[in-house]
Structure formats: structure tokens, C-alpha cells
TrEMBL record:
Signal peptide: none annotated. Residues 176-403 form the Tr-type G domain. Residues 1-40 are annotated as: Disordered. It comes from Drosophila kikkawai. Keywords: GTP-binding, Nucleotide-binding. This is GTP-binding protein 2. Belongs to the TRAFAC class translation factor GTPase superfamily. Classic translation factor GTPase family. EF-Tu/EF-1A subfamily. The gene is LOC108070699.
């Protein structure tokens, strides 16, 4: 062991300049002498009121009621336009190119603020100029095969109006835009009931009737507690209308996907502490874009709520909160408790209680860019506040940058197996997340690692996404894969990976027992020493590991950081440098990044 530990490494402008306004500030009655699109920085016509919800960076949330927006971001999917009236052909092409860039930044979605200067002042337009600007924006979107929908339109002063428009273009290689949301919360918070109401469009009777369609096992129906991962979908068409099972009488999951330009996939996770490992595995393995923390107005923030919140923060995942059961008791005390929890030194988030449609749109448009945590108060029995939640979800963007998406798609294929099913006449089916690369039907792959660390060649037969067949899966998308019936498959388990078949490449993939990681201990009651056993989560991997070495010291306490050597107890896993690690045992928690791996045997040849 000493010789092995000696290998341990202890050190391990968007490009579009706006044309200046040619005749000063725009006049209040119609077009200025220039018929070109302008994006003025002048603020003489803007309202003097400056306010909003501060963040750590000093920015403001996008709220028209505050009189001013933050300065236009140079990156991202938000664009300010003061006016879009009769642009020349050359200028129109420039605007279309700019829109294309904003759509790529938002993974198919962009927000346009019309009547707003680059500095964020709400200067507004006359009704004539606003209608002309919206027409131009629609023509720009049509040029790219995109659609537009006005999210809100406000009169600010002297008959001058501003508007916020959502531009959406489904990528050419996708049927719709998908946002994955993990649903967390205590066992009695009403998570399954909430999803039943949203996806079935039928209010609850106060006794849990809406949740019955969410359960997958008889013991869940009998106990009322979710014990495994359940996937549910909520769709939106191009105009923002909800598409769910009540859309028509014969609606199926496949039809919801076909009719929706945007699809929100909910992962209903277990709330009881008994199933905490399954919950953490789903958060780590499926890499949801957002977490939805559900809290009961009656019970408030319990230990499970704080535990889930700590895990979400450790994974650096944006989240929002829903306070349920407001028909039984007032949510005020629970909301205040949440605000106190979010503003503590260890969290430092800005709670934002959403009370109207404008605030819901503002929160959805800035969920990633700002440090806010939207809070909704809802009732599954009366339906109070649910319309604000659906409006928020309609605007919510996947949040991954286009540059990162392109980079991941250029990498070799890696599919993490999280669930395994056996379907009659189909054979074994694996479900999980494509971490990087592009996966197609009939693609040769290798699955593993096997007990000896090697990988077994397989061929992907069919692919399903959102309960509907498809031909291709791209990085960041979840899917289910089946294999040819005539293939000789090894024993499958959760935590395996499917890798692109590189033929006889010298860099054959191989499993590992030992790996090094730079870790930070979030909490431990006493101290961690060599020999400490803990459950390690790396992507879809969930296995007990033992700490075999701590570089630079003999122990680790709360808030301590160090390079640590781990050894898997059961079997080898596929781990690579750069992967995020989360380990927990009881109340002890820590996070880190893998820095070095030690393959079982680099000379293994798959038989």
C-alpha cells in the first residue's frame, strides 16, 4: 500500500455593435427621422425610479415595475432593443444574425426587451412604433424558423409601452426543447400530488387522489410514499398553452411530446430518509437542470428539507421552492423560515416570493443569471398559484451555454446507466444520461466495467426519449436504449457506462478501484481519518468507498480541504479526471473533483 500511495499526486462583446440613434432620443409620437432600428443609451426619457431586488453582484431582477433593468448582458440569451422600425435589408440581416447568436446562447430560447436601452432604461415606444417593432421581430424569427410570443406588455408613462418577447426555435436535431426538473422535499410535502395536478390538470380532493397516477408500486399506493424515481412530463406549445393529459381525451405521453415545442420533465424523487441514497443518485446521475424543493406550509422546514437543500447547493444546482397546502394554513410563517434559511452565511441566496405573472416571468427569465431563489405559494386543492408555476416553467431555460453544448458533442460518446429494465420481446433496456458525444441507432459501443475492469462490445438497437422513439441522442439528454436480441450481454448494473467503440485503439477503457480527488468536507461531527467508509456518488455511480490516504495531514474536519485517495469496496467503476464527486455517510457530507485514476489493468483485452 505504501508503494501504491507513492503514486498519489498532492498537487494535483457579443460582436454586434448597435447603431447610434441618428436623431437623439426617439419622439413620443411615431417614428423618428431615422427609420432604422436603434438601441440608444440616452436616458432622458427614462423613469427616474431605480430599484429592485439586489444580488451579490449588485444587479437587478428584470422587473418592469422597478423602472429600470440591469445593463444589457453581453453574453447569454437576453437582448435589449429600443426600436425595430423599418430596418434596411443589410441591417435586417445583421439583426437576424444577432438573434441566431442569442438563440444559440439560450439553447433555442431568447428573451427580447423592446423599448429598453442598452443601459436598461425603460424609455418605451408609442403604440405605432411598438407594433412595428413587434412585426419586425416576428419577421426576424420567421427568417430563422422560430416563433415569438409576447410575455408581457406594460404602459410606463405618457402612453409609452415596453414589451418582453420570448423567441423560441427548436434545434434542427431536436423535436422540442427539454428542461429536466428534480422534485425534492419531505415525505409529506405533497410532491407527487403536485405533479399529478400539473400533469393531469385535475385538482386534488384533499386526500391524495391526484398522486395515485404518479406511483409505480403497490407499496407506494398503500403507504403514500414514493420509493423510486418517477418521470412525468408537462408540455407547452408555441403559444405557451399547457399540453398535458387533459389536452384531449386520447392524450398519451408520445402525443404530449409531439405537440409540445417545450417539454418539462419532472423527476419525482423520494422524500423519506430511508430512500436518501436513491434521491442523491438521481441528482448526481441524471444531472437535472433545476431542482424544485417542495415544502408543506403546515410542517415548514424540517430536517429532510434542509438535507435536500444542502445536497442541491453542494451540486451547485439552481433551484426554486414551492410552498404547498396553503388551503389548510397560511404560508407566511414557512416563507419567513425559508427566507431566513436562504440568507444565512452558508447559503447567501436572495429569496424572491412570486405573487403575480410579471414576477413569475422575471424569475423564469433570470433563474440562472441571478442569485435569486423564486418561492411560490400554491394549493393542490384550490389551484391557487399553480398558474404562476406553469408560466414560470414556460419561460425557464435549460441553462447550458451553447459553447459548452458544442464542446460536449465533439467528445467521444459516454452514456451513464442509471436504471435497468427488462421488456418482453425487447430484452434488457438501460436508462440514463448521455454525458458527452452523440449517440445514434445501430451504433457500436462498449459497456462496462465488468468485474475484471474490462468492457464488452454491444450494439445499440433502438432509442427512446420522453417515452417516444427517436434516432439520435445528444450530450445532456436522457434516454432509454435497447440492444439487439442476438447479442451476448454481460450482467448489467446501475453505474455502468456505454462508451464509443474505438476499435483497436491503444487507449482502451478500463475500470478502476483507486482514484484520487480534491475534496472539501461540508460537515462532519468530529473528524475523518484514513479507513473512513462512505457512500460515493460520481454521476450514476453509487458505491461504498474507503479513504486510503489523506495528503498533507492525518484527519479532515468540517470545511477542511485535501487530496484524498479512495478505494471502491465492491467492484471497479469507470471514473475519469474532472468528474464531480459527492460523498455522504449519515449527516457527514463532502464534495470534490476527481484528479487522478489508477486503472485496474491497462493491458486488459476484451474477449
Amino acid at each position: 500500500m505504501e508503494s501504491f500511495l507513492s503514486l498519489f499526486d498532492p498537487n494535483q462583446d457579443d460582436g454586434f455593435d448597435e447603431e447610434p440613434e441618428l436623431n437623439g432620443n426617439s419622439s413620443g409620437g411615431g417614428s423618428s427621422s431615422s427609420d432604422y432600428e436603434t438601441d440608444a443609451n440616452s436616458n432622458e426619457c427614462a423613469l427616474s425610479l431605480v430599484g429592485g431586488i439586489p444580488t451579490e453582484r449588485g444587479n437587478l431582477i428584470f422587473d418592469f415595475e422597478q423602472g429600470m433593468l440591469p445593463p444589457e448582458p453581453q453574453i447569454g440569451n437576453v437582448e435589449y432593443k429600443l426600436k425595430l422600425v423599418n430596418p434596411s435589408k443589410q441591417r435586417f440581416e445583421q439583426l437576424v444574425t444577432q438573434m441566431k447568436w442569442r438563440l444559440r446562447e439560450g439553447n433555442g430560447e431568447a428573451i427580447y426587451e423592446i423599448g429598453v436601452s442598452d443601459a436598461g432604461y425603460l424609455q418605451g415606444l408609442s403604440d405605432k412604433d411598438m407594433n412595428a417593432s413587434l412585426t419586425t421581430l416576428k419577421q426576424m424569427a420567421h427568417h430563422l424558423g422560430a416563433s415569438t410570443s409576447v410575455l408581457r406588455r406594460k404602459t410606463i408613462s405618457a402612453r409609452r409601452v415596453v414589451a418582453e418577447v420570448l423567441v423560441r426555435k427548436i434545434p434542427d436535431d431536436q423535436h422540442n426543447i427539454e428542461v429536466r426538473v428534480a422534485v425534492l422535499g419531505g415525505a409529506d410535502a405533497g410532491k407527487s400530488t403536485l405533479l399529478g395536478v400539473l400533469t393531469q390538470d385535475e385538482l386534488d380532493n384533499g386526500h391524495g387522489r391526484a398522486r395515485l397516477n404518479m406511483f409505480r408500486h403497490m407499496h407506494e399506493i398503500q403507504s403514500g410514499r414514493t420509493s423510486c424515481i418517477s418521470h412525468e412530463t408537462l408540455g407547452f406549445d408555441a403559444l405557451g398553452n399547457v399540453v398535458n393529459y387533459k389536452y384531449n381525451e386520447m392524450m398519451t405521453a408520445e402525443e404530449i411530446s409531439d405537440r409540445s415545442s417545450k417539454l418539462v420533465t419532472f423527476m419525482d424523487l423520494a422524500g423519506h430518509r430511508r430512500y436518501m441514497r436513491t434521491t442523491v443518485q438521481a441528482l448526481s446521475g441524471y444531472s437535472p437542470h433545476y431542482a424544485m424543493l417542495v415544502v408543506s406550509a403546515g410542517s415548514g422546514c424540517n430536517d429532510t428539507t434542509e438535507e435536500h437543500l444542502a445536497i442541491v447547493r453542494a451540486l451547485d444546482m439552481p433551484f426554486f421552492i414551492l410552498v404547498t397546502k396553503t388551503d389548510i394554513t397560511s404560508p407566511d410563517a414557512t416563507v419567513q423560515e425559508l427566507c431566513n434559511l436562504l440568507t444565512t452565511i452558508g447559503c447567501r441566496k436572495v429569496p424572491f416570493v412570486v405573487t403575480n405573472t410579471d414576477e413569475a416571468i422575471s424569475a423564469g427569465s433570470n433563474q440562472v443569471s441571478e442569485n435569486i431563489v423564486p418561492i411560490f405559494c400554491v394549493s393542490n386543492v384550490t389551484g391557487t398559484g399553480l398558474n404562476l408555476v406553469t408560466k414560470f416553467l414556460y419561460v425557464l431555460s435549460p441553462g447550458i451555454s451553447n459553447a459548452e453544448k458544442d464542446r460536449l458533442e465533439q467528445e467521444s460518446c459516454e452514456f451513464q446507466v442509471d436504471e435497468i429494465f427488462r421488456v418482453s420481446d425487447v430484452g434488457p433496456v438501460v436508462g440514463g444520461l448521455l454525458v458527452q458525444g452523440v449517440l445514434t441507432e445501430n451504433m457500436p459501443m462498449k459497456i462496462g466495467p465488468l468485474p475484471n475492469g474490462s468492457f464488452h462490445p454491444v450494439t445499440v438497437n433502438t432509442i427512446h426519449r420522453n417515452k417516444a422513439p427517436c434516432r439520435v441522442v445528444r450530450a445532456g439528454q436522457s434516454a432509454s436504449l435497447s440492444f439487439s436480441l442476438d447479442q451476448d450481454l454481460p450482467t448489467l448494473r446501475s453505474g455502468m457506462v456505454l462508451l464509443g467503440d474505438t476499435g483497436n485503439s491503444p487507449d482502451e477503457p478500463c475500470g478502476t478501484y483507486f482514484f484520487q480527488a480534491k475534496v472539501s468536507v461540508l460537515f462532519h461531527a468530529t473528524a475523518i481519518y484514513v479507513g473512513f467508509q462512505t457512500t460515493v456518488h460520481i454521476g450514476s455511480i453509487r458505491q461504498t468507498a474507503v479513504i486510503r490516504g489523506i495528503m498533507g495531514g492525518e484527519r479532515l474536519g468540517t470545511n477542511d480541504c485535501a487530496s484524498v485517495m479512495f478505494e471502491f469496496v465492491g467492484h471497479p467503476e469507470y471514473v475519469r479526471p474532472g468528474m464531480r464527486i459527492l460523498f455522504r455517510e449519515g449527516t457527514s457530507k463532502g464534495i470534490g473533483v476527481v484528479t487522478q485514476v489508477f486503472p485496474v489493468n491497462k493491458t486488459i483485452v476484451t474477449k
